[in-house]
Amino acid sequence: MTFDVELNGHHFMIDANEKVGGKNRGPSPKPLLLSSLVGCTGMDVVSILEKMKVNDYNFYINAEADLTNEHPKVFSEIRVNYIFTGNDLPQNKILKAIDLSENRYCGVSAMLKKTCPIKYNVFINDKLIRGEA
Questions:
Q1: Residues 30-51: tens digit of each pLDDT
Q2: What structural domains and CATH numbers belong to the chain?
Q3: How far separated are the first and last CA of the chain, in Å rounded?
Q4: Percent of the chain with pLDDT over 90
Q5: What torsion, rounded to 10 degrees, do the Cα atoms 27, 43, 56, 119 define?
Q6: For 70-79, what is each residue's pLDDT tens digit?
Q7: 3-class DSSP state for residue 2?
Q8: Rg (CA), the chain
Q9: What's the whole-model pTM score?
Q10: Is the dihedral angle over the CA atoms 109, 110, 111, 114 positive or is it negative?
């Protein structure tokens, strides 16, 4: 089940896990879709914060999704967690950057929102600032 994928001159493997006949040589398609969402919105947020002159922070982002029970198994809900740590972080600028990504710039988010809800959680120094986590 392993596929060698080429995108814009970059090669990577896609595979399934061993439970379904793969050899786990690379990510499977649905987690790759989530990584596209994380990459898109993460790049937006970093770029916007740079323009806002916010540079001294640590940033981690992840996404998880629930699947429907019926085939084809599709995402029924996606949760994106933006996690920031650092001293004297400007909460208002962080929230503004995330909002701009979610609602204006991230094309992957815009596409996925048409198929299932996306919930966003924002943590600053381990405190939930926005969301339902």
A1: 999 999 999 999 999 999 999 9
A2: 29-130 (3.30.300.20)
A3: 35
A4: 98
A5: -80
A6: 999 999 999 9
A7: coil
A8: 17
A9: 0.92
A10: positive
